[in-house]
């Protein structure tokens, strides 16, 4: 059983739903969605425990990003757990009839962040499709 932590952007484009639908009939993969109504100490502990025991610590960043904690987590995990850290940023999303992209400056910053994460030994993919192919290869 491949255990995957689904970290990253929480608002807007439902990238977690895309991955969950893709693997809903695969018995060889367990997806952990850390999104809860009340992110209290218990939820933080459960999330941290899962990240320690999982096979893949995934961080997907979208233009709906409201904070930088997920990016900090991805960089931290690329240092602490590079063999299982995966970073993806999705630059072109649609949500509620609108199209969302990163600004040129944000994209440049994300590219440098991606290179930092990869240089630490972690993996990075340029699309959800490439990520899904990678996850399928682990099953």
Task: Provide a descriptive summary of the structure in words.
- The protein has helices at 15-22, 41-53, 69-80, 104-119, 128-138; strands spanning 2-8, 29-32, 56-61, 85-89, 92-95, 98-101, 123-125.
- The model has no long low-confidence stretch (mean pLDDT 95).
- It has a single domain (2-138), classed as Rossmann fold, CATH 3.40.50.450.
- It has 139 residues and is of the alpha/beta class.
- 27% of the residues are buried.
- Helix 1 links the parallel strand 1 (2-8) and strand 2 (29-32).
- The chain is built from five helices and seven strands.
- It has a five-stranded parallel beta sheet with strand order 2-1-3-4-7, with helices on both faces.
- The protein is globular, with a radius of gyration of 14 Å.
Could you list some keywords that capture this structure?
5 helices, Rossmann fold, 139 residues, single chain
Set down the secondary structure blueprint.
Layout: E1 2-8, H1 15-22, E2 29-32, H2 41-53, E3 56-61, H3 69-80, E4 85-89, E5 92-95, E6 98-101, H4 104-119, E7 123-125, H5 128-138
* CATH fold type: Rossmann fold
Q: Quick one: overall form?
A: globular
Order of helices and strands, N to C? Answer: EHEHEHEEEHEH
Radius of gyration: 14 Å
